[in-house]
Structures are given as structure tokens and as C-alpha cells.
């Protein structure tokens, strides 16, 4: 149910996913989108963006004191990223499972990071780590008017 602005939970839960610059440059976008579609999630927003350092500093504010922070900001601003919002039952947690671990070396085959990368500093994709982070990240990357509400004509007989 919709609790408040952006406050979707349960079946209408939303998460923020970004294909990072290496993922875009390696033409992994279609493969990644395909996995989310086939899992059964609904795309409610998508855009190709060259993120500003200001936006990235806000996005990664919790990591501001980490030794890799400046490397992370320059990596993320090195080229366009594909910012997306996906919606569906437990999408935040499920998407994190689909991504794999932060370090690709710890990510199982079958996960996005486990299948497509080897280095923590070039790990292809971002996914929100909690419903609360998802709400903040969606509000940071998207205007309300960019979030689309639509229903599948097959809704009544599939789910
Ligand atoms: P995530 O939620 O799995 O993306 O991981 P974190 O929120 O902990 O870190 C954010 C991002 O920072 C990761 O996805 C990596 O791109 C990067 N990162 C995390 N740890 C390291 C590290 O030890 N070295 C480098 N170079 N980048 C890192
Ligand atoms: Mg994180």
C-alpha cells in the first residue's frame, strides 16, 4: 500500500538501481534489465545520466570517510550511468541478492556481480540497501513526475 510520498512498501516496494559507468560501457544494460524484468519486477523509471559530483557526494554520504571515497566519486562520474527504479514484492532485498556481494570476489555465480566483474572498485551496479535508503535515493535521483504508474493488462491473471 502507498503510505506517503515515495513510501511504498510490500508489493509496491521500490528500489533504486544504477548501472554504473563500467556496466554501461561494457554493454551490460540489456542483460541487467532483462534479469529484473524476468524476475517479475516492474520498471517505473529509467534514465541515462552523467551524475554530478554533488549528486554523488549526497548519494554516497555515508562513505565520505572511507579511504576509497574519492576514487569512488571519480569512477561514478567518469561516464553516464543508467538510473532506474524497480517496483515489486520485497524488491529491495531481492535486488541485493540479484546483485551479489559488494566485492565481486565474494559474489556467487548467477549474481550480476558474480557473473560480470572481478574488482570491488568496478562492480557494475548499485542497489539500495534498505527501504529507507531506497526512498532517499529515489528522491535524490528522480523527480516525482519521472516515476510512472502503470498496470499490466495481464495483471488480473498473472498476479
Ligand atoms: P554496495 O552497497 O554493495 O554497493 O557497497 P557499499 O555501499 O559498501 O559501497 C559502495 C560502493 O563503493 C561499492 O559498490 C563499490 O563500488 C565501492 N567500494 C566499496 N568498497 C570499496 C573498496 O574497498 N575499494 C574501492 N575501490 N571501492 C569500494
Ligand atoms: Mg551501499
Your description of this structure?
There is one protein chain. With 159 residues, the protein is α+β, with helices and mostly antiparallel strands. It contains 8 helices and 4 strands. The chain has a 4-stranded antiparallel sheet with strand order 2-3-1-4. The longest helix has 11 residues, at 29-39. The protein is globular. Bound molecules: guanosine-5'-diphosphate (GDP) and magnesium ion. The site of guanosine-5'-diphosphate has 10 residues, from helix 4.
Main attributes?
159 residues, alpha+beta, 4-stranded antiparallel sheet, 8 helices, 4 strands, globular, disordered N terminus, binds guanosine-5'-diphosphate, binds magnesium ion, cell cycle, Nucleoside_diP_kinase
Sheet with most strands: 4 strands, antiparallel
Number of strands: 4
Strand content: 15-25%
Order of strands, main sheet, comes to 2-3-1-4
Molecules bound to protein: guanosine-5'-diphosphate, magnesium ion
Number of helical elements: 8
Rounded radius of gyration (Å): 15 Å
Give the helices and strands as they follow along the chain. EHHEHHEHHEHH
Mean pLDDT: 93
| Helix share bin | 25-40%
Class by alpha and beta content = alpha+beta
Shape: globular
Cα distance, first to last residue?
16 Å
Task: Pick out the low-confidence regions.
Answer: 1-6
Main location: other
Organism: Fundulus heteroclitus (Killifish)
Subcellular location: Cell projection, Lamellipodium; Cell projection, Ruffle; Cytoplasm; Nucleus
Binding site for ATP: 20, 68, 96, 102, 113, 123
Amino acid at each position: 500500500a502507498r503510505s506517503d510520498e515515495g513510501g511504498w512498501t510490500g508489493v509496491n516496494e521500490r528500489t533504486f538501481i544504477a548501472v554504473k559507468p563500467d556496466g554501461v560501457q561494457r554493454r551490460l544494460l540489456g542483460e541487467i534489465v532483462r534479469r529484473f524484468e524476468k524476475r517479475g519486477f516492474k520498471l517505473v523509471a529509467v534514465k541515462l545520466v552523467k551524475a554530478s559530483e554533488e549528486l554523488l557526494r549526497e548519494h554516497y554520504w555515508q562513505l565520505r570517510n572511507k579511504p576509497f571515497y574519492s576514487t569512488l566519486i571519480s569512477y561514478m562520474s567518469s561516464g553516464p550511468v543508467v538510473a532506474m527504479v524497480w517496483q515489486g514484492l520485497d524488491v529491495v532485498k531481492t535486488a541485493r541478492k540479484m546483485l551479489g556481494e559488494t566485492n565481486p570476489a565474494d559474489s556467487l555465480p548467477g549474481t550480476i556481480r558474480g557473473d560480470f566483474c572481478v574488482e570491488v572498485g568496478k562492480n557494475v551496479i548499485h542497489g539500495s540497501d534498505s527501504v529507507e535508503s531506497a526512498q532517499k535515493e529515489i528522491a535524490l535521483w528522480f523527480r516525482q513526475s519521472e516515476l510512472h504508474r502503470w498496470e499490466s493488462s495481464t495483471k488480473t491473471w498473472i498476479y
